[in-house]
Structures are given as structure tokens and as C-alpha cells.
Amino acid sequence: MSREIIATDKAPQAIGTYSQAVKIDQTVYLSGQIPLDPVSMEVVEGDMRVQISRVFENLQSVAQAAGGSLDKFVKLNIFLTDLSHFPLVNEVMAEHFSEPYPARAAVGVASLPKGVEIEMDAIMQLD
Q1: Any idea what the Cα angle at residue 36 is, between residues 31 and 37, rounded to 5°?
Q2: Domains in the chain, please, with CATH?
Q3: Which residues contact 28 (CB under 8 A, 6 or more apart)?
Q4: pLDDT digits 0-9 by tens, 49-67
């Protein structure tokens, strides 16, 4: 079993004691991404649609650094501080993914790092 730490400057750097992703054989475990700009490390300005898109862009950057892409995701976990944003998450997700979609969970939480409203993590399977 091979273990590799995945890191890219095209996604926000870790703001804690974790790696952006860990690859074990052909499975990649992507850490949670919030709507941070990877250059400024600040929460992106804009409405919830902009924030959701930034999270998908951050996940895509980490996935690419590991040799994959969003279409290789097998599991996506979405954490929202307000579940009323769930329909918007579906809309934006449809702009970034095509069928067959990954398995997914959406969980309402009390709070997230830096006071953001959304965080996502994923598991990706490479060919």
C-alpha cells in the first residue's frame, strides 16, 4: 500500500494540522474545502452561489494535483450552516458534475471554520 500526501498552491493551504489530500493506492481522500481564495487565503466575496462555486474549484484543484478531476469523485460530503441553501448547492453542482454523480451527504452544522456557510470534502477513485 502506497501513501502520498497531495499538495498544490492552486487551492488554499491547510489552515490547521491536515493535508489537502492523502492518496492511498488509487483512492484519494480530499480534506474539507471552504470558499477561500487560494492566493489571498481570504473568504471570497459574493453571494452563496459564488461561495459554492469556489469550493468546487478548490476541490477540483486538489483533485487535479492528485491526478484526477471532479468526475472521479465517488463520495462528496457537504456541510451547510443553513440547509435552505441545499437547492442552490444542487444547481451549482450540476454545473460542475455530470452523471453518474458521486454518492453524497448533506449535513446541517452549527458553524464552520472562518464563519463560512459551506464546506465540502470528498473521496476520489483514480483509474
Answers
A1: 120
A2: 3-125 (3.30.1330.40)
A3: 6, 21, 22, 63, 66, 68, 123, 124, 125, 126
A4: 999 999 999 999 999 999 9
